[in-house]
Amino acid sequence: MNLESLRDYCLTLPGVTEELPFGPDTLVFKVKGKVFLLTPMDSAAHQFNAKCDPEKAEELREKYPDVKPGYHMNKKHWNTVYVTGNIPSETLFGWVKDSYDLIVKSLPKKDQGSLG
């Protein structure tokens, strides 16, 4: 996984928009105006922040050294994932989808329905 493949994947998910609300260096992906993933574009090491179920977040941090509490985020609900090649890309994309699904699940039913 690299920044381009992460971006391409996020944009395949229904209703996703990309924005730069924190300046030109942090790419933010939202669904219906709610953030589900952030990634710096100027970092030497590729990484991203993704929302996660609190129990699963703790499990992932224990299992994978490249998963840390969310940098500048609520550490109970967000993980920062360092993309070093130690975790398979399909696993990383699965975590991105999990983050998206958590946000979609929290949306009002009418907004969920409009996503298909």
UniProtKB/TrEMBL annotation:
<dbReference type="GO" id="GO:0003677">
    <property type="term" value="F:DNA binding"/>
</dbReference>
<dbReference type="InterPro" id="IPR058532">
    <property type="entry name" value="YjbR/MT2646/Rv2570-like"/>
</dbReference>
<protein>
    <submittedName>
        <fullName>Predicted DNA-binding protein, MmcQ/YjbR family</fullName>
    </submittedName>
</protein>
<dbReference type="InterPro" id="IPR038056">
    <property type="entry name" value="YjbR-like_sf"/>
</dbReference>
<dbReference type="InterPro" id="IPR007351">
    <property type="entry name" value="YjbR"/>
</dbReference>
<dbReference type="Pfam" id="PF04237">
    <property type="entry name" value="YjbR"/>
</dbReference>
<keyword id="KW-0238">DNA-binding</keyword>
